[in-house]
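Good morning,

Attaching, inline, the backbone tokens for the sequence recovery test we're adding to the shared suite. The designed sequence is right after.
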């Protein structure tokens, strides 16, 4: 059986890794000795292909390591991912260069990300007990200092530290790494599981399980310390070590994978359709496959009940009346401060954001009226397009973006008016498609109200199932872990139009 056939099967049976990997007797000579430093690393260049669902090439990455004159090492990383999303071609380029000590501790880092032609550069430099992070895009620059109390490593260290410290089964390594994608520092936990054999591997290898910012991966290292295989999300994404010629052929090949990452991977199919989902006031739906309690959110409008092995949601939108909302300008307590602060993605104190927010809201007498004006403006003025945006200011300048772009801009505009607002993410039902992963917002107007600027809904319809609160990537990573694993069973729904409750059994 070819490796790709096995990979395809593994992608379809994400919980069955043990079917394809088996413990192998340890080498008579024992595990390779710890290399301690990069000075002893034999292989300093590697090429990998990235596969989606086991057999479709969607990208590559390569790394190279070179000694510098001062005794430190330069680690260069380049990747390209090319795929379809809702039929539209997407390309992501990443160029990263880290300067590290011989034991891989970070000295400095520079990462350039190019998403759909938009570029973001992230620089990090260690000095005086903190990491200074500078982020720049076409429309803005930002600087922040992250206090560092322990040795810090680059994200690329996850591919090398187990080799430097020793591939001894049962060993666990913990350290902190900087992620340029999230501009944050998090703890890495790596455990050497065992020595394994598999049809996927040309030779037996050591499996290392890695956890970082709520993403888990399994990697296999050969006796030379080379990473030969990595599996993410239970087999949905796989990288495999290849030779340079094979990777270069992918770069030259302009064809796209047949699969659509949005429809074939992230869609949550429902057993029955929901007509006119935009006017649904209440929904009862069972979600199968959601086992991470951190993604189960309960609030006055969203009940979640566990019955045996089933997760049943009951979502009901409350009436939203302007006379019940707080008057403008709002008087708030200190507990609302976190939902007013600016961030790199949501620059609520940027002069252009402040100016635009005041212009849109005008003389709105109450907070609900202001929220509706902001949401309708964003939905009307921002073109719904599958292009990436790094921040609210980027969206304001380009006037286009997907749901997260709409939500970032709306959230920045609302906070600029002193309306507490938070980003939320989860599922929303799309007619003739099913549930898709989506981002929207919630604003406090005397109560928390669901706002979907992409769909121009205040409040949003009840097919919105909230799973994550906040714009930090760590929360979104939790949601990524369940992609491709969920199914939905519609129990009942109710529309705003006629307030008629429609059980499944009575629907035509």
């Amino acid at each position: 059986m070819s490796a790709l056939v096995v990979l395809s099967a593994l992608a379809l049976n994400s919980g069955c890794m043990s079917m394809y990997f088996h413990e192998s007797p340890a080498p008579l000579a024992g595990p390779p000795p710890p290399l301690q430093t990069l000075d002893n690393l034999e292989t300093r260049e590697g090429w990998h292909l990235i596969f989606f669902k086991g057999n479709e090439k969607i990208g590559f990455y390569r790394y190279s390591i070179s000694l510098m004159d001062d005794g430190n090492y330069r680690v260069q990383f380049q990747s390209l991912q090319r795929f379809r999303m809702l039929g539209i071609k997407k390309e992501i380029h990443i160029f990263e260069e880290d300067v590290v000590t011989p034991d891989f501790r970070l000295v400095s880092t520079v990462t350039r990300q190019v998403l759909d032609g938009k570029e973001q550069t992230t620089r990090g430099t260690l000095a005086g007990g903190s990491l200074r992070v500078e982020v720049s895009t076409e429309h803005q620059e930002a600087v922040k200092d992250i206090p560092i109390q322990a040795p810090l490593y680059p994200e690329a260290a996850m591919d090398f530290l187990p080799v430097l410290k020793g591939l001894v089964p049962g060993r666990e390594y913990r350290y902190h790494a900087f992620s340029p994608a999230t501009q944050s520092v998090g703890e890495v936990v790596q455990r050497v599981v065992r020595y394994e054999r598999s049809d996927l591997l040309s030779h037996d290898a050591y499996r290392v399980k890695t956890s970082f910012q709520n993403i888990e991966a399994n990697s296999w290292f050969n006796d030379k310390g080379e990473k030969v295989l990595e599996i993410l999300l239970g087999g949905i994404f796989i990288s495999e070590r290849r030779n340079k010629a094979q990777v270069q052929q992918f770069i030259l090949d302009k064809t796209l994978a047949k699969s659509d990452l949005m429809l074939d991977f992230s869609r949550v199919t429902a057993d029955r359709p929901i007509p006119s989902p935009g006017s649904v006031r209440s929904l009862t739906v069972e979600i199968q496959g959601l086992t991470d309690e951190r993604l189960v959110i309960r609030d006055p409008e969203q009940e979640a009940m566990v019955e045996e092995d089933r997760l049943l949601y009951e979502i009901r939108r409350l009436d939203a009346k302007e006379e019940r909302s707080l008057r403008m300008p709002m008087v708030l307590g200190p507990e609302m401060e976190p939902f007013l602060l600016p961030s790199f993605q949501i620059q609520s104190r940027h002069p252009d954001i402040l100016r635009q927010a005041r212009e849109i809201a005008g003389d709105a007498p109450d907070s609900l009226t202001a929220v509706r004006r902001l949401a309708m403006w964003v939905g009307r003025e921002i073109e719904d397009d599958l292009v990436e945006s790094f921040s609210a200011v980027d969206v304001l300048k380009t006037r286009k973006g997907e749901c997260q772009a709409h939500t970032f801009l709306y959230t920045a505009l609302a906070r600029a008016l002193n309306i507490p607002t938070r980003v939320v993410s989860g599922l929303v039902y799309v007619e003739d498609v099913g549930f898709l992963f989506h981002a929207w917002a919630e604003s406090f107007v005397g109560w928390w109200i669901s706002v979907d600027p992409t769909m121009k809904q205040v409040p949003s319809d009840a097919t919105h199932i909230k799973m994550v609160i906040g714009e930090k990537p760590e929360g979104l990573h939790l949601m990524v872990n369940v992609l491709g694993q969920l199914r939905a069973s519609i129990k009942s729904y109710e529309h705003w139009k006629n307030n008629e409750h429609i059980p499944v059994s009575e629907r035509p």
